[in-house]
Amino acid sequence: MITTMGWAILVMGMLVLLVAAVGVLRLPDALARQHAATKAGTLAVSLCVVGLAVLALANGWGWSWIGRLLLLQTVLLVTLPIASHALARAGLSEMEKRDADP
Fold first, then answer.
1. CB 36 within 8 A of CB 27
2. Does the pLDDT value for residue 32 go beyond 90?
3. CA nearest 91: which of 40, 28, 39?
4. Residue 30 scores a pLDDT above 90
C-alpha cells in the first residue's frame, strides 16, 4: 500500500515535469518559458523527492536516504528561485536591447 502511494506521487511528479517541458517548448517568450520551467519544475522535483522518500521508508533503505533527499530538496528550493531571477533579468535586458535597436 505504501509502496503504491510512493509510486503514485513519483508518477505525479513526472507528469508535472512533462507539463513543464511542454510549457518550455510552447510558450511564446523567454520570460514565460522561464516561469513554466521554474514553477512547475520546483513542484515536480518536490513531488519526486516526496515519492522517493515514501519508497525509501517502505523499502527499508534507512533514514540516511531521507536525509539525502531532504538536503537535495533544500538545495533546489534555495537555488531555483535565484536562477529564475537571474534568467528573468537577463531576458528583460535582452528584450530592452532588442526594442531599443531600430
1. yes
2. no
3. 28
4. no
Mapping DSSP onto H, E and C, the string for the chain reads CHHHHHHHHHHHHHHHHHHHHHHHHHCCCHHHHHHHHHHHHHHHHHHHHHHHHHHHHHCCCCHHHHHHHHHHHHHHHHHHHHHHHHHHHHHHHHHHHHHHCC
Which amino acid does the sequence have at 35? H
Distance CA 90, CA 30 (A): 10
Q: For the chain, what percent of residues have pLDDT higher than 70? A: 98
Where along the chain do its domains lie?
A: 2-100
